[in-house]
Design goal:
There is one protein chain. The chain is mainly alpha-helical. The chain has a two-stranded parallel sheet. A two-stranded antiparallel sheet has the order 3-4. The protein has seven helices and four strands. The longest helix is centred in the last third of the chain and has 22 residues.
């Protein structure tokens, strides 16, 4: 399965097909089951490639006197066109023989995959080391430990430890 956002691509491409098959100065309504896509299109701080490309296409259409309306459709409610679009998008996403039209990976996907790889390597090192056996009893899995919110404080048994030239009082 491809790791690309098929919903946004299919919405954008369907708008392009409709635009290319009609005359300038017409109306078009683009229906999507993705509220996230609509929210991203409205949020000018979001500058991802697909969102920017979608905005560019909408602007092109507006400059050609098109009236473009973006509409949300509740998914999985039996709306014929939406169900067909979902089915086709899923089929395309699973088809490895299709040429990928979008070959960019978002920064968030790269970041997540790098983080997962870092935790896998850390776990391998943690499992193979002979040090920290007591700690391993409490935290055998690095990934699970990272999910925990712990406030750990180091305790000292020596009575007169100094910290930055200040004497630390002995606990009672």
């Amino acid at each position: 399965m491809h790791k690309y956002p098929s919903r946004t691509i299919s919405d954008t491409n369907s708008a392009t097909v409709h635009r290319n098959n009609a005359k300038d100065g017409q109306k078009i309504a683009i229906y999507t089951g993705s509220k996230i896509t609509l929210d991203k299109l409205r949020n000018t701080k979001i500058r991802t490639y697909l969102i920017e490309e979608t905005r560019r296409k909408i602007n092109e259409m507006s400059k050609a006197n098109w009236e473009v309306n973006l509409c949300w459709v509740k998914a999985h409610k039996g709306i014929m066109g939406n169900e067909l679009a979902d089915t086709l998008a899923k089929k395309a996403a699973k088809n490895e023989s299709l040429t990928v039209e979008y070959n960019r990976i978002s920064k968030s996907v790269v970041t997540r995959e790098l983080e997962e790889e870092r935790v896998r390597k850390w776990q391998t090192n943690w499992t193979q080391t002979t040090k920290g056996n007591t700690t391993k009893e409490y935290f055998p899995n690095v990934g699970e430990r990272l999910k925990m919110k712990l406030n750990l404080t180091q305790l000292h048994s020596n009575s007169n430890r100094t910290w930055k030239n200040k004497s630390v009082p002995t606990p009672i």
